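#lab-general

N.A. 3:47 PM
ok so I finally got the sequence cleaned up, no stray characters, all 138 residues accounted for. can someone with queue access submit it? mine expired

B.Y. 3:52 PM
send it over

N.A. 3:53 PM
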Amino acid sequence: MADRIGFDVVSPERLLLSEDVEMVVIPAEEGDMGVMAGHAPTIANVRAGTIAVFSGSSVEKRLFVAGGFLEVTPERCTVLAEQAIPVEDIDVGQVQSQIKDLSEDVSRAKDEREKEALEAFLALAQAKLQAAEQPAYR
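B.Y. 4:20 PM
back already:
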């Protein structure tokens, strides 16, 4: 299948996806990275955001990842995610509540270390909400 690339998304909990795809767009730290069959070998960090799996010119699946690493060879792309979830499984109400609570916690942080940790959790929750409400690719 020269026009498809093997694609795997693995989180600590489970293998979330393993299939041959036409193209995938991954939120790498340096910017969104499109991967197709024949891609140059690459290793990169993944930032929190949405992985978009394409079939033709439309998105077939969306997965939210909370960061991790990716490895690309000409035949395969593997994402080792810190956390991953199908975008359709995100509970928007729960994430909005989490953002509200974390914002309050940040304002009440006792020291800079606690504030930084809470801000990291808040940024992750905000990225998850954006993945659910504003998909980058259609």
